[in-house]
Amino acid sequence: MLCWSVGYTFLAIIVYFYYLFRFPFVADKNHYPLPRIMIRPDRVFIALIFLPVSHVVLCSFIKQLYDLLDIKIDEMMIVLLGGAIANVCELVLAIYIIRKESLLDCLKSDFRNLIKNIFPALGRSLICFLISIPLLIFCEIFWKKFLILLMDNKIIHINLDAQYLVGHFAQVDSGLKLSLMLINTILLCPMMEEIIFRFLLYRFLKLRMAYLAGMLISSVVFATMHCNLALWLPLFAMGLILVHSYERFGNLLIPIAIHAIFNMLTTCVLYWQYF
């Protein structure tokens, strides 16, 4: 009986993955596959390195500036303000690199007919995200059990308690902090990360290797750059979904919208758990 249960479960997973990557990711025949583009590797590397460095440097600078002016500021405000400024700086750097690489027209084509296609794109993004939810839940459960196993064997030691994330909302005690958090998570981060990880990194890799290898490597980098081991596998799975949606639709607005929906729902769940 156990063998049959495992077999049916395995078969169900295979069928689910087949439909996950076939429906609703129906390729846009006019823009699939994505054309290969030339990008200098050093500029891609600079964009990736600037991402974490800018957050650390700007948060430190803001703290020192407020100390110099003898103005009290809590840690959450430093993180939110520094993160917002860093995200804007990263967007400016990415656009500069794209312009220097003469790829601005290519980026514009990814946002083609934005006003005309905004609602169909959002609809596709929502459907893709809903279809992907079982995969994300499975990855989170499996990864958590795997990390617990490593912790039981004293191989690693990390905090898997979600309450420490919920506790951050205790520090969001003003409209300004809440606004900065929403702007960061729903607007700036999806735009910045999709341009960096999907437009620059993935298309740089696609020129040099097969589609699957580029998708896997860019997703590994995407998950690792978040510096959160407890959520590494769900973030990796999310990276696969975002790359696949970009490749199939040829429109960067789709992964940006999926990313924004994911961040928005995560924020809402944490906010609901706290309040």
Account of the 3D structure:
There is one protein chain. This protein is mainly α and 275 residues long. The protein has one domain. It contains ten helices and no strands. It has helices spanning 2-22, 41-68, 75-100, 104-110, 114-152, 163-167, 175-206, 211-224, 232-249, 253-274. Helix 2 (41-68) packs antiparallel against helix 3 (75-100) and helix 5 packs antiparallel against helix 9.
C-alpha-based Rg, rounded: 20 Å
Low-confidence stretches: none
Span from first to last CA?
44 Å
Number of E-state strands: 0
Number of helices, where a helix is a run of at least 4 consecutive DSSP H or I residues: 10
Instruction: Give the overall silhouette.
Output: globular
Topology:
Blueprint: H1 2-22, H2 41-68, H3 75-100, H4 104-110, H5 114-152, H6 163-167, H7 175-206, H8 211-224, H9 232-249, H10 253-274
Provide a short characterization of the protein structure.
This protein is an all-alpha fold and 275 residues long. It contains ten helices and no strands.
Question: Features of this protein?
Answer:
globular; 10 helices; mainly alpha; 77% helix; 275 residues
